[in-house]
């Protein structure tokens, strides 16, 4: 059990309903300080709604929220002095310069003028805007806008930073640079909660929650989550991938079969679908193939937990890339 002093966010039974739609359904979270905690899930899974409730921007229908020792939403105004918030859309003023945007945000945070000037000069260097302070924000690239938005979100050195799919509109190199900045912030003591639908970003988080249709279906470190699937993932090497996939999906215990280049990656229930059974089924259809175990990935975890959740609801759930029949 973590001590109260080490916890940045704690929720119990967090729920948000919009009429007959339950967007967030009875979610329990515990986020430790000085770590990057990830929300992974598809669009509509409840990530953004959860973040807005944690920030105090949206009132929950039920449940309890404690953020930095404050009761939310009752103490939301106090909380806003200690948090930063960055959305997936560039939210600064495109007709103001880099410096003017930062000056405006320092004023919003009620920073004293001398302190604000020193902090802005510091951020211009730290976020590589030394020669662009007078450039209009609207003329910058996606990666530059992203860096400016992050600089603005941390101008007041918040204890806790909320990032809602912040890298959805930038290139892979800019995403990597952005994550280096996030690790620098956690090294300096900032706690970060970031929502994403990128598996490679999820792997970078210290701890991860997977949301599916508003429910928390998995919570743990990436290593813990993938370790729970050991023995359930197989790799099939064959030149007849499409034919092999059709055969394998009919075998009891095969949850998904995704084509990855010249191979098929299988997720199984770990009981009925053994490598030997896979090989026998394929050879019986005249398909030559090599079948072996492979280390689980976070995508495998995502497919497994959402499949299990759908089964519990009595629904059919296709894995990413699966066609309907």
Automatic annotation (TrEMBL):
It comes from the Bacteria. SUPFAM superfamilies: P-loop containing nucleoside triphosphate hydrolases. Residues 9-238 form the ABC transporter domain. Pfam families: ABC_tran. InterPro entries: AAA+_ATPase, ABC_transporter-like_ATP-bd, ABC_transporter-like_CS, P-loop_NTPase. Keywords: ATP-binding, Nucleotide-binding. GO terms for molecular function: ATP binding. PANTHER family: ABC TRANSPORTER G FAMILY MEMBER 20 ISOFORM X1, ATP-BINDING CASSETTE, SUB-FAMILY H, MEMBER 1. This is ABC transporter ATP-binding protein. It comes from Microbulbifer bruguierae.
């Amino acid at each position: 059990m973590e001590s109260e002093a080490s916890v940045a966010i704690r929720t119990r039974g967090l729920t948000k309903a919009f009429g007959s739609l339950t967007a967030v359904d009875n979610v329990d979270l515990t986020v430790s300080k000085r770590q990057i905690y990830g929300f992974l899930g598809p669009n509509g899974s409840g990530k953004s709604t959860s973040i807005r409730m944690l920030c105090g921007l949206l009132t929950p229908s039920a449940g309890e929220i404690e953020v930095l020792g404050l009761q939310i939403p009752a103490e939301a105004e106090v909380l806003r002095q200690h948090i930063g918030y960055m959305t997936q859309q560039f939210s600064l003023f495109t007709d103001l310069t880099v410096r003017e945007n930062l000056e405006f945000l320092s004023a919003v945070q009620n920073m004293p003028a001398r302190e604000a000037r020193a902090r802005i000069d510091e951020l211009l260097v730290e976020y590589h805007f030394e020669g662009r302070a007078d450039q209009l924000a609207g003329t910058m690239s996606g990666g530059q806008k992203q860096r400016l938005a992050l600089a603005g979100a941390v101008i007041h050195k918040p204890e806790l930073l909320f990032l809602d799919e912040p890298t959805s509109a930038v290139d892979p190199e800019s995403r990597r640079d952005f994550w280096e900045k996030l690790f620098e912030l956690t090294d300096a003591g900032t706690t970060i909660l970031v929502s994403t639908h990128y598996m490679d970003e999820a792997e970078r988080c210290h701890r991860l929650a997977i949301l599916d249709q508003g429910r928390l279906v998995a919570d743990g470190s990436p290593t813990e989550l993938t370790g729970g699937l050991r023995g359930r993932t197989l790799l099939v090497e064959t030149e007849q991938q499409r034919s092999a996939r059709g055969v394998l999906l009919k075998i009891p215990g095969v949850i998904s079969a995704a084509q990855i280049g010249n191979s098929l990656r299988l997720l199984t229930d770990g009981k009925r679908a053994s490598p030997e059974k896979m090989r026998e089924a394929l050879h019986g259809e005249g398909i030559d193939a090599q079948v072996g175990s492979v280390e689980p990935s976070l995508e495998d975890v995502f497919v497994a937990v959402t499949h299990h959740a759908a089964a519990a609801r009595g629904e059919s759930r296709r894995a990413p890339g699966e066609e309907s029949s």
